[in-house]
Amino acid sequence: MSYIPGQPVTAVVQRVEIHKLRQGENLILGFSIGGGIDQDPSQNPFSEDKTDKGIYVTRVSEGGPAEIAGLQIGDKIMQAPTPFISPNGCWPPHKFQD
């Protein structure tokens, strides 16, 4: 779906709950993210607004928890539970806790 200037835009906001999967000693969610305040928003392939500093899903692992929950490449992350966000505002998957 692409944005066409002057045409109506539909935004769908859906709460998605992803349950971590244990693989050995690691807990995985099965997706990667890109974007954010420390990235060049003009390089964001998922937004027509080249000032958008949002966080977007860039990869979803086949059969992983994120795919099972319905997450798709290009989805914008609007909010994450605060225990998962580090004090500097980053959201590193390797710091998730059980």
TrEMBL record:
The keyword Secreted does not apply. GO terms for cellular component: cytoplasm; nucleus; plasma membrane. It is a peripheral membrane protein. One of its GO terms (biological process) is Wnt signaling pathway. Residues 15-79 form the PDZ domain. Keywords: Acetylation, Cell membrane, Cytoplasm, Membrane, Nucleus, Phosphoprotein, Wnt signaling pathway. It holds the Pfam family PDZ. InterPro entries: PDZ, PDZ_sf, Synaptic_Scaffolding_LAP-MAGUK. Gene3D superfamilies: 2.30.42.10. It is found in: Cell membrane; Cytoplasm; Nucleus. This is Tax1-binding protein 3. It comes from Rattus norvegicus (Rat).
